[in-house]
Amino acid sequence: MSDPSPEQNIPEALDEASLDRLFREARTTRRWSSRPVGTALLASLYDLVKLGPTSGNTTPARFVFLTSDDMKARLRPALSQGNLEPCLSAPVIALVCHDALFFEHLPRLNSEPGLRDWFAADVGLSDETAFRNGTLQGAYLIMAARALGLGVAPFSGFDSFAVEETFLEETGWRINFIVGLGYPEEGPSPPRAMRLGFDEACLVL
User: Fold this and answer.
1) What are the distances in angstroms from CA 134 to CA 7, 61, 138, 144, 181?
2) How many helices (H) and strands (E) does the chain have?
3) Is 184 helix (H, G, I), strand (E, B) or coil?
């Protein structure tokens, strides 16, 4: 039997319904239903997120899930006024963080000799790597949440120093952005804001 042609090895694209859920019909959630989001679902969410690629398998992202009213109340003083209601009303608030000392885990995550010491000796490189790849993993969180049927609302209006002092002081992690998670309240999707076209945002060289 002959080997399969290259075309036969190309995975099929996701179906239209999947693309609609992830991209075309997805909207930032503004109103949340009362349906709870359990810890088991958050674990399933992370199990998807951790599989996304990062440079050298550094995986620097860390996530803090605020699920109780008490923890959300502690976040309140750090939020900008416009984010108070839409963020605090989310069933779960995820703090998307990164670990500046991610390289301490590299002996388990990457078999390349000396990689841990290379990052440890260059603070600029390690900080840049942690922020870039942690942001990438935060984007995976958004898409994985949508894939699991959750609504998502990212937020960037907050006092990062206050968040770190309140929630991250013992970990040494750094906050990047915040994501509200939960099931959206049923109703018509709001109109999508304009996006730039291919010719405006892309170069093919």
Assistant:
1) 34, 4, 6, 15, 18
2) 9, 4
3) strand
Span 134-146, average pLDDT: 98
Q: Are 59 and 131 in contact (CB under 8 A)?
A: no
pLDDT tens digit sequence for 70-80:
999 999 999 99
CA gap 11, 16 in Å, rounded: 15
Of the options 3.40.109.10, 3.90.1720.10, 2.60.40.3410, 3.20.20.70, the CATH number for the domain spanning 27-184: 3.40.109.10
pLDDT in tens, 13-60: 999 999 999 999 999 998 999 999 999 999 999 999 999 999 999 999
User: How far, in Å, are 48, 52, 85 from residue 96 at the CA level?
Assistant: 15, 15, 19
- Give CA 75 to chain center in angstroms: 18
Do the Cβ atoms of 93 and 180 come closer than 8 Å?
Answer: yes
* Model confidence, pTM: 0.92
pLDDT of residue 2 exceeding 60, the answer is no
Question: For residue 44, what is the enclosing H or E element?
Answer: helix 39-49
Residue 104 CA: distances (Å) to CA of 18, 55, 60, 110: 37, 15, 10, 11
Nearest to 166 by CA among 151, 154, 181, 178: 178
The whole-number pLDDT of residue 5 equals: 63
DSSP state of 158: B
Return the structure tokens found at 68. 């109780």
